Amino acid sequence: MLRGVGDDAAVVRARRFSVTSLDAIVDGVHFRLDGEWRTPREIGRLALAGALSDLAAMGADPGEAYLLLGLPGGFGEERAIELVRGAGELAEECGAVIAGGDVVSAPVLTLSVTAVGWADAAEQLIGRDGALEGDLVGVTGTLGAPGAALAVMEGRAPRGAAAERLLARARNPAPRLAEGRALAGAGIHALIDLSDGIATDAAHIGRASAVKLAIRLHALPLADGVREVCAELGGDPWRLAACAGEDYELCFCAPPAQREAIERALADAGGEQVTWIGEVLAGEPGAGFSDEQGGDVPLQGFEHRWD
Amino acid sequence: MLRGVGDDAAVVRARRFSVTSLDAIVDGVHFRLDGEWRTPREIGRLALAGALSDLAAMGADPGEAYLLLGLPGGFGEERAIELVRGAGELAEECGAVIAGGDVVSAPVLTLSVTAVGWADAAEQLIGRDGALEGDLVGVTGTLGAPGAALAVMEGRAPRGAAAERLLARARNPAPRLAEGRALAGAGIHALIDLSDGIATDAAHIGRASAVKLAIRLHALPLADGVREVCAELGGDPWRLAACAGEDYELCFCAPPAQREAIERALADAGGEQVTWIGEVLAGEPGAGFSDEQGGDVPLQGFEHRWD
């Protein structure tokens, strides 16, 4: 960084292609400041997670993050510093730097983040639109933890060991930057991050690529504790995992010949494991889910909150 | 732009140095959605003005703008489209492109903007920290229109021909991108945009450069209509011009030898005229204002709203 905080704008030495994403979180919409569930530090971290996850979903190298705080009256300098500290910690873990920002007054706490990544070649970046018939569908890590944690936060599921594991993960979102770069380098065709749930996000790939992603619902990798909390709730853990969102894992389509290279690349990057969950077919553009007997499972309009 | 709306992030071919600024405006803080004074289109325009003005204040070439909308329930698609249209119009006038963005829910209308500019050489960019003893202090265009317009909007000054001219200007902020580039190319030492009023912003240059900007208050160029509205209000138009802010003009320090080259560069760029308002002295870092007899005029704590 050549110029940062204290001048009119931040100046950074660029690489050939810039990759830019915006995201915002608002008190009462994406988190509750008055709840017991997230400290200001964790809220700062949460704010950065979405925009950084979008960079991961392009296979970009992380660069700078810019943080705009909308602070309500009486929020206090100490908590504002904690917000920035939390954001800075996640940036550092992901290989990014907080390079600037601004503060304005707002009626409720609002954090708006711009994340900038870089690439030396356009081919290094993977969009949503390259999936081909015959590709395998893979997903990194495990799904459903933030959705199940929400049920705990909202008092619909009891506390306990499983709940605590889910809460810990929901409070510490981890965008998959290293995984995104490893996948992009291993010959995948299409890539997206799971912010709205794989039922929605896999359909984005399908529509952008004009193919159908056929996914086996029970192949989805469940996060530790999801099954237990869903048993308490009387809900289906795979539906929750497919629909609840905020997982920040990556979903991708790749030719079968690359399967082992991809698994090796993720392992070499020290990244999350891949689970192969389906394949790409011709057919109505979008995503379809099937049960263990191969029957269609409609997930559209499924309300993960059970209320 | 290689990838834009519809993928996880926008991809843009970069130049050597990126220049990035964030700004946000919030209903009830920076504008009033329920007032008669600004249409959604003008609010979109206003949102972009601050961040683009920061690029002007570096002498950067404008590049992309990214717009994040926080929309309250029931805001409606039509008005949201008008916001984006207004932002897009100002971007186009300034030579920038809206390259991406996002929409979230928020309790009140919130627009958060990231503006990215570019430069091929670091020396092309001008910070706040280069002013030298002996430099002249210049300002582009005219000051005070948004401050005086606010008095009209708040019902403290009557409508009339002067008021209408002020309102028209306040509704159509115009960041000085062309002027910023022309100044940066004409050998100036320090540059800032006037968002908080020259009393505050000139002091930023002074402190960053460890010099004192000595400014003749009555040399400030008043915008058309400011004098008339201040006469109605019983206020001093020069104090208003110095303190009210949101002018989005540029203030700069330059060696006297460059005076004519600067005036010519601004004229060649089709830009606003320059007014020479003071000089740079050794002394306590900051800015000082003097009256026509050379006496100090304290402006710190001056409340431009007179209420």
Task: Write up what this structure looks like.
Two copies of one chain form a homodimer. The first copy, chain A, is built from nine helices and eleven strands. With 307 residues, the first copy, chain A, is α+β, with helices and mostly antiparallel strands. Chain A folds into two domains: 17-124, PurM-like, N-terminal domain (60s Ribosomal Protein L30, Chain: A, 2-Layer Sandwich); 136-290, PurM-like C-terminal domain (Phosphoribosyl-aminoimidazole Synthetase, Chain A, domain 2), CATH 3.90.650.10. The longest helix of chain A is centred in the first third of the chain and has 18 residues, at 77-94. In chain A, strand 3, helix 2 (77-94) and strand 4 form a beta-alpha-beta unit. Mean pLDDT of chain A is 93; it is low at 303-307. Chain A has helices at 40-56, 77-94, 145-153, 161-171, 177-184, 198-209, 226-233, 237-243, 259-268; strands at 10-13, 17-26, 61-71, 97-105, 110-119, 136-140, 190-193, 212-216, 250-254, 274-281, 286-290. The termini of chain A are far apart. In chain A, the strands form two sheets. Chain A has a six-stranded mixed beta sheet with strand order 7-9-6-10-8-11, with helices on both faces. A four-stranded mixed beta sheet of chain A has the order 2-5-3-4, covered by helices on one side. The interface between A and B is large, with 62 and 62 residues. Strand 2 (17-26) of chain A pairs antiparallel with strand 1 of chain B, so a sheet runs across the interface.
